[in-house]
Amino acid sequence: MTTSFAPLTVAIGDLVPHPANVRSNSPETYDPENIAHLKASIAVLGLLQPLLVQKLDGKYAVLAGGRRHAALKELIADKATKGFTAKTKIDCRLVPEDCDVTTALSLAENITQAPMNAIDEFEAFARMMEVDGQTPETIAKTFGTTVAAVKGRLRYGLIHPDIRAAARGKVITLDTMKAFAEHPSQEVQREVFEALTKDGGYLQAYTVRQALKSRGVQVSDDIGAFVRADYEARGGAVAADLLEEHSVLEDAALVETILLEKLGAAAEEARMRLGFAWADAMVRYDYATMADYGRVYPGPIEPDEAAQKRIDEITAELEKLQLEMENEGLEDGAYNALYDRVDALEEEARDLQEAYSAEDLARSGVIASWQGGQITLHVGLVRPEDTVKEEGARGSSSNPTGEEAPDAGEITYPASLAEDLKTERAMALGAAMALHPEATLDLTLFKLVSDVLASGMSVTQAIKIDARKEYRSHAKMDEIDETSLEQVAAAHDALDLSWLDDSRAPADQFAAFRALKAGEKAKLVAYATASTTQSCFARDRQRDSLMHDFEIEIMPDIRAHWTPNAALFNRFKKAWLLKILGEDLGLAQEAVTLASSSKKEIVAFCDKLFAEPFATLTDAQRAAVAAWCPPMMQTAGVAFEEAEPAAETPEPDSEVAQAA
After folding, report:
1. If you ran DSSP here, which 8-state letter would residue 402 be given?
2. Where is the composition biased (Acidic residues) (predicted)?
3. Burial class of residue 659 (count of CB atoms within 10 Å of its CB; 0-12, 13-18, 19+)
4. Which range is most confident: 46-55, 260-269, 505-514?
5. What's the CA gap between 61 and 516, in Å, rounded?
């Protein structure tokens, strides 16, 4: 049986919610932000579909159309909207009071309307503009949305009809169809679509975007934004998109020509400023080609009186900035500004204390390339034909072997840095002790009894068994790698501290302690002993054979408890970092590339490299990264007496010493 409902008009103010409305328990459905589009549509187009109402207690209760009712009430409250008051009447359909299917009616109203197909929506927006003469602004007003959102839908509705038909027929996905909007020209879209589908292969959005890149450069791309003004001044064609950032510079060859000109100008400016013999440019730095190039580096020079005065000023300012950066209340923006200032000052100080030799300048040059959205200068390059053939030629600082790591001399560690590295190693050793409770228990008990019963000197001074936790200071404690701290914390969490109860008498605590299992006691002693470990470098067998052999047993590799990070690399000279990359880690090509980068960029590269070794590393490089640490920190590394003098005699002009 078919039920019909009589039409009538009802004042908005006489409408109330119906308890049988299936959305009545979801009040968030009627929140203003959830009905903004509907409100805008009714304001412009009116109420297109009548409400279903039922007479309840002298009012008309809205059984179906609750969101429309909420939108109408919003229009009444909005004083800027004209034509809607509590007395305004709207079309309704009256459900009889004796109807026994009210809930079914409400549910049917809400679920029987199928959601609109996305392509239908895109095409409808396009027809409103092309056929009805609407603008993105008027469409946005009608649907209560932003102009940018409307333009986004319009772009998809204006994709070539053949491509839209393929998406509607499930030949390609909706995402793949959307990818064609990367180029505003329907003709270009069609050509690319036909080229990519001629062999019947599966089409992906990524493939489409890559193919469209060869047909022009978007003005929002870093290169597009960089060359656009010159491109348009030369009459280059621009395919305009509804969204400006998706407009395309269609002449890719002209784009590349302009980019190379700008790169060449930057390289020439650097050549003249630094005194190199030649300058060149390439859009992308060709690592395979550049592997045959050598490189020269500036060497130390004695600064004159004026330069020395400026160096002293820089040193004083760096010390001041270092103190400011230690303020934990600094906002990120303020900290980054200080960091950039420190980096600039360190670079200025290096320039005052380093210079290229006349011989190197006469045969080397600079290449400008486009990297990371900016011009990058690769300085001090030596062409293969200009490379000095005689190995170790006098006065030359280039490396003719193809190993591009800089020759910066031996790395020396300023005293402050050396002391901090000792602290980090002690923390790692303490973690190893806590993770080897049986061995540490034996060591502790042996020291205790031998110090009491044996005659002569103590068997080792490396640990303090006087029930005092060793105080550990560090200039950058909040920035260093926390692996050892986390391991010690985990060891602490595993301790049985049930006996440790201050509310009980010491004798009772001791009785509970004696009742612990041997393994639990070992963990407690190991943790306590680990906490006494003093600042240290790798032990020397001749000076302390006991701890030397013990460390080999429990910590053969410090990297199990410690990882170098930015806190360490920040305190190295730029030349040291390049030397480590090129010589210690076998990343010669990366060292070449990074040589023209700022220290900040090199530090970030090293930090990422050690945090998670790159997938592109060879097995040998990966092993080197996994094992590297300052040699005096590794148990099986440099002997203690070999590292100690370097730590005690820092270079007075070292930028690391200044920063520390």
Report:
1. S
2. 641-654
3. buried
4. 260-269
5. 74
- How many whole angstroms separate alpha carbon 660 and alpha carbon 22? 69
Residue that the structure tokens 């080197």 belong to:
624
Q: Which helix (H) or strand (E) holds 624?
A: helix 619-627
**Contact (CB, 8 A) for 4 and 49:** no
Report d(CA 192, CA 180) in Å as an integer.
Answer: 9
Q: What is the per-residue pLDDT across 172-215, written as a single tens digit (0 to 9) for each?
A: 888 898 899 889 888 998 999 998 888 776 788 888 988 888 88
Reported as a single tens digit per residue, the pLDDT across 259-287 is 999 999 999 999 999 899 999 999 888 77
Token pair for 161: 């009809």
Fold of the domain built from segment(s) 6-112 = 3.90.1530
205 vs 207: CA distance, rounded Å? 5
Instruction: Kindly state the DSSP code that residue 285 receives in the 8-state scheme.
Output: -
Q: Return all residues near 468 (Cβ < 8 A) that are at least 6 apart.
A: 532
**CA gap 36, 34 in Å, rounded:** 6
Tokens at 251, concatenated = 């002449």
Q: Where are the domains of the chain?
A: 6-112, 302-353, 449-535, 550-627
CB atoms within 10 A of CB 191: 15
Decide if 623 contacts 438 (C-beta within 8 A).
Answer: no
Distance CA 121, CA 258 (A): 41
Could you tell me whether strands 89-95 and 51-56 are parallel, antiparallel, or unpaired per DSSP bridges? parallel
Write the CB contacts of 386 (distance below 8 Å, at least 6 apart in sequence): 294, 363, 364
* Angstrom distances, CA of residue 601 to CA of 118, 372, 590: 44, 12, 12
CA angle (567, 572, 575) in 5-degree steps: 145
Alpha carbon distance 229, 239 (integer Å): 15
